[in-house]
Amino acid sequence: MSIGALDAASAYGRAIGTAGIAGGTGLRPPAGAPPADGPDFGNMVQGLIGDTAQSLRAAESASAMQVAGQGDLIDVVTAIGAAETALDTVVAVRDRVVNAYSEIMRMQI
Hints:
Elements: H1 5-16, H2 41-67, H3 73-106
Helix pairs in contact: 1-3, 2-3
């Protein structure tokens, strides 16, 4: 059985009460429940993905400028290194979420 990253994200979205990526209805907290304090995992992941996309765009534009003869090679290497680190972080978080989801699905009820 293979669990994709979108499946895990959709399941998490349903569990926290948002629409999720697949557009599920989700669970809602009880009416009298106090709001949860602290950082929201969904917002953290969304920010992480946004920052990663921005790093990838910066690396792409630096590479394009270098190819056009207008950029500096050091800037290209720095931008690519930052993009690679950000992408590795996103992949690591995704792997952890998928592993946690798989572990939860294996639990006996």
